[in-house]
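hey can u run this one w/ magnesium ion bound, need the structure tokens asap thx
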Amino acid sequence: VLAIWHQLTKSEIPELAKCSVLMKERSRVEETICAMQRAGAGSLQVISDFDMTLTRFAHNGTRVPTTHNILDNRLLIDEDCTKKMRELLNTYYPIEIDAGRTAEEKLPLMVKWWTEVHELLIQQRIRKDMLAKAVKESSAVLRDGYKLFFDHLTEQQVPLMIFSAGVGDVLEEVIRQNHVFYPNVHIISNYMDFDQTGALRAFKGQLIHSFNKREGALSHAAGLRELQGRPNVLLLGDSLGDLTMADGVSEHQNILTIGFLNDKVLGFIPERTKLISTITTPRASPLPFPCPRPPSA
Ligand code: C5P
Ligand code: MG
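ok here u go:
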């Protein structure tokens, strides 16, 4: 993905030839990239999921923690809470990634999972001033090439909207500690509400879980002024629910949708994995690929 973005201003994308990159319709991907390249950085916005999309799924053979799992630290929660959160994870995570169930079936179960975990966290009265230390002590890792990606977007003044069903306060701390929390980065997520003593008392606003991102996109993202007049979208995610994150973009022209297949890779059946490079773009006339270079000024 990072390579694709990096190469948008160049005329070849050798990464697309890798066997790890699967495309439903290669020609449409190429057309979309060419169209986005012609329109330039001024027409582009990037909408990305966070956990397991901007962060790695695994590192040195172990799972990288999600923003919720970063909170599993004795600085913040006790052993009993850890046990209960893990039981909930073991029950609901397999449902979240089950390709055999519809989003409608999953939705009430996801609400239950998130709500129960948030209630547990509130009972623990998590301390705001301990979050940074918990992130520092965690094994959270951003994906390879993240620095180039964030730096390039900020240099080109391309807005990056991070849309996460994780915990916003933790997410911010992860990107801050990795020195990429730039002004072009906007975050929509579940934010903690602390009382006057700095203890967690609630979560702010409407709950965001993996299957209601469409509503969040319509109510929040559509209102962001920086995103107006940018009809081309690079959409990054790892869950089928992430596909709806661009639904708030009115009058989009090209959407390049890139999905990271993280889990159950061995049991992967291409026909059922809709997220892998599903391209939604008005059909354009066929173009030669690599894209022709624009005439130099
Ligand atoms: O940033 P993103 O939207 O991917 O964050 C949500 C992810 O966090 C979900 O995919 C889910 O697997 C994970 N999660 C978790 N623990 C919870 C709730 C969600 O690890 N209690
Ligand atoms: Mg994710």
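The longest helix spans residues 103-123. anyway lmk if its weird
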